[in-house]
Design a protein that fits this description.
Blueprint: H1 4-10, E1 15-20, H2 30-39, E2 46-49, E3 55-61, E4 64-70, H3 76-87, E5 90-96, H4 102-114, E6 119-123, H5 144-155, E7 172-177, H6 188-201, E8 205-210, H7 214-226, E9 233-237, H8 243-253, H9 259-266, H10 271-292, E10 296-300, H11 306-319
Parallel strand pairs: 1-2, 1-10, 2-5, 5-6, 6-7, 7-8, 8-9, 9-10
Antiparallel strand pairs: 3-4
Helix pairs in contact: 4-5, 5-6, 9-10, 10-11
Bound molecules: flavin-adenine dinucleotide.
Length: about 325
């Protein structure tokens, strides 16, 4: 089944998706493909591949300063193709507003369509490193809802230029959401209104940012339903298994880490104890989510599969 929404609608089995990140420029693709290979026994139905906006570097040569966009992690589309060929799993490329004008977005969509890719997670994108706020390209999109609208229009055969007998694409569109609210949003209520906007524009399902408390997710889903967001909401999950992550995860992802989880990690006497404790904590969270009836789970690997594998092993073992 090629589209996320078809799986969610027609399949009674829990949907399980993974999210991977392309390697840094100059590194081999083998490491990330072996992360995927290691997780294949758990039969992911979809594998998301993140997209990274280039950042601008200024270079001086012979007294002339030139501006050069530089992407640290290229290769999203190539990895999607490798995943499809090697593992016969449907890839879900992330497509962002940042770094693209609308015409470049249309070209990227045509490429994905020609490659036989049927799913896209449509995002605004994070500001590139060293830039505090998101700045769209000239003629680019400011918000993810505009990107969703462009993809939905292409699905109806509306290209940016009037074309004779245009061929429609048929992408299934997912979007992101934040149970603790997006960090730029003044409050969750407003953030949810904008989330609804993305759904009204054509998003068919939602994947959330990571969170660590079941109550946060439940409240988020209830509030989303109360304002008329009816599409499936899939929790995004990341096992937190090491001391440094207690600092890096909140600052990078603007999420709260509950004191119970902080204690598990900080009070562990060895790295292995912290790892096992963090995995156990998240496995409990997954159990609560499954009992609540979530349609799927989405696991962020961030390029490293060990914690994801340990989580899945625990969850699958307890459900067998
Ligand atoms: P939007 O939905 O556009 O929202 C951004 C902000 O603008 C929010 O505060 C929202 O409330 C507000 N807003 C929305 N619409 C409007 C409007 N019409 N008027 C005024 N305000 C509005 N980033 C990457 O760079 N690459 C990735 O591959 C990537 N993958 C991700 C995967 C997941 C599952 C998640 C949860 C996030 C991912 N991100 C990724 C991070 C994401 O790009 C950032 O969080 C970004 O800051 C917001 O993206 P968005 O699509 O949620 O934006």
């Amino acid at each position: 089944m090629a589209k996320v929404i078809d799986w969610l609608r027609d399949n009674r089995k829990l949907m399980f998706s993974l999210e991977i990140t392309p390697p840094d420029r100059g590194k081999s693709v083998d490491d990330i493909l072996s992360v995927v290979e290691n997780l294949m026994p758990y039969e992911p139905q979809f594998i998301n591949v993140t997209y990274h906006q280039p950042h601008v570097v200024y270079e001086e040569k012979d007294g002339v300063i030139s501006r050069r966009p530089r992407r640290k992690k290229p290769g999203t589309v190539g990895i999607c193709s490798a995943i499809k060929n090697r593992f016969q799993v449907e890839p879900v490329p992330h497509l962002i507003c940042g770094g693209f004008d609308r015409f470049e977005t249309e070209d990227a969509l045509i490429d994905l369509h020609f490659l036989g890719i049927e799913n896209i997670l449509a995002l605004r994108g994070d500001p590139p490193p060293g830039q505090a706020r998101f700045i769209p390209e000239k003629d680019g999109h400011q918000y993810a809802c505009q990107l969703v609208e462009q993809i939905a229009r292409l699905n109806r055969g509306h290209y940016l230029d009037e074309l004779e007998d245009p061929f429609p694409t048929h992408f299934c569109i997912g979007v992101a959401a934040y149970p603790e609210k997006h960090f730029e949003s003044p409050n969750l209520e407003k953030d949810l209104r904008y989330l609804k906007n993305k759904v009204d524009m054509g998003a068919e399902y939602i994947i959330t940012q990571m969170f660590f408390e079941f109550g946060q997710f439940k409240e988020f889903v209830e509030r989303a339903r109360a304002i008329g967001i009816q599409v499936p909401i899939i929790p995004g999950l990341k096992p937190l298994v090491g001391k440094t992550q207690i600092q890096t995860i909140p600052s990078s992802f603007h999420v709260n880490i509950p004191s119970g989880l902080v204690a598990v990690i900080e009070e562990a006497r060895t790295r292995e104890q912290a790892f096992a404790g963090g995995v156990r904590f998240l496995a409990n969270l997954v159990e609560q989510l499954l009992d609540y009836g979530v349609p799927g789970i989405h696991v962020f690997t961030m390029g490293q599969g060990r914690a994801a594998r340990a989580l899945l092993e625990t969850v699958f073992a307890s459900r067998r």
